[in-house]
Amino acid sequence: MAFLEIQDLTKSFGGIQAVDHCTFSVEQGSITALIGPNGAGKTTVFNLITGLIKPDSGKVLFEGREITAKKPNQITRAGISRTFQISRDLGEMTVLENLVVQSPTRGFLDLFQGSILNHEYEKAMELLDFVGITRLAHEKAKKLSYGQKKLMEFAAVLMTEPKLVMLDEPAGGVNPALLEDIVARIELLNSRGLTFLIVEHNMDVVMNLCSPVVVMAYGKVIAQGKPQEIQANPIVLEAYLGEG
Ligand SMILES: Nc1ncnc2c1ncn2[C@@H]1O[C@H](COP(=O)(O)OP(=O)(O)OP(=O)(O)O)[C@@H](O)[C@H]1O
Ligand SMILES: [Mg+2]
Q: Is the Cβ–Cβ distance between 162 and 113 less than 8 Å?
């Protein structure tokens, strides 16, 4: 039994078959990459796994249990956390608050407590320290640079104490120094047992950080294997060249 199993997932939008009988799995402890040309269906697969949209058919299993019909917050509580390709920060809130709202207990505690709880505050500060932006804790999120926002999102994704972290283009638009930082932190967290599923177009990051690599095109998985195998696979090269 795999940690995360995507079984025969299918999703169409109008006439577009965004995800077409897609099947792959993520092993516990891996840093698995999900790559493919623009429009291949990668973000849609993320949305299906995390319950933002429902598949037309197929299943998602996490730790052997079906999560296909569950709500996003139930999936988060099961141990899956993600970032978004397009930043979804709450600009008027501080960086610290952006982290605290991720806390799975938050909605319930809001009923009788308005202030930030001590343990949530401590966890958020610890994570801001982990990504190196403690000094920005009380800044409004909208004042952050693009790179700082990426770090905030990376910290926020860890607030729910996930078992599986899904990152949608963590390297997108990030400068080389920051990229090195992010990669080092992913490696550190992975060495402590955290599993990653990463959508990424930066092939240096994919080839150096991830294994296995799953390749999608036109909603289907067209190849999977070790980075070296994927790099040498003619089907993969053709899919990327066909992109135009
Ligand atoms: N909500 C939606 N409504 C209509 N079409 C959609 C919707 N979401 C995705 N699509 C379409 O589904 C296909 C797959 O899109 P998706 O965003 O999953 O690709 P992707 O692999 O993440 O691409 P990229 O690398 O550019 O981020 C595309 O043709 C896209 O236009
Ligand atoms: Mg995408």
A: no
CB neighbours of 87 closer than 8 A, spacing ≥ 6?
149, 153
Question: In the chain, what's the furthest Cα-to-Cα distance?
Answer: 59
Domain boundary, last residue among 135, 161, 187: 161
Q: How far is the CA of 207 from the centre of ligand 2 (A)?
A: 19
The answer on 180 and 65 residing in a single domain is yes
- Residue 61 vs residues 11, 28, 213: alpha-carbon distances, Å: 17, 13, 19
Residues 102, 148, single domain; the answer is yes
Residues 121 and 25 in one domain: no
- The answer to whether residues 225 and 195 touch, using CB atoms and an 8 Å cutoff, is no
Does 105 lie in the same domain as 156? Answer: yes
Domain span at residue 37 reads 1-79+165-244
Tell whether ligand 1 has an atom less than 6 A from the beta carbon of residue 16: yes
Last residue of a domain, one of 120, 135, 161: 161
The verdict on the CB of residue 189 being under 6 Å from ligand 1 is: no
pTM, two decimal places: 0.93
Q: What is the pLDDT along the chain (244 residues), one digit of tens a residue?
A: 799 999 999 999 999 999 999 999 999 999 999 999 999 999 999 999 999 999 999 999 999 999 998 999 999 999 999 988 776 667 888 999 899 888 765 555 554 555 566 788 899 999 999 999 999 999 999 999 988 999 999 999 999 999 999 999 998 888 999 999 999 999 999 999 999 999 999 999 999 999 999 999 999 999 999 999 999 999 999 998 875 4
Residue with CA nearest ligand 1 atom 10:
18
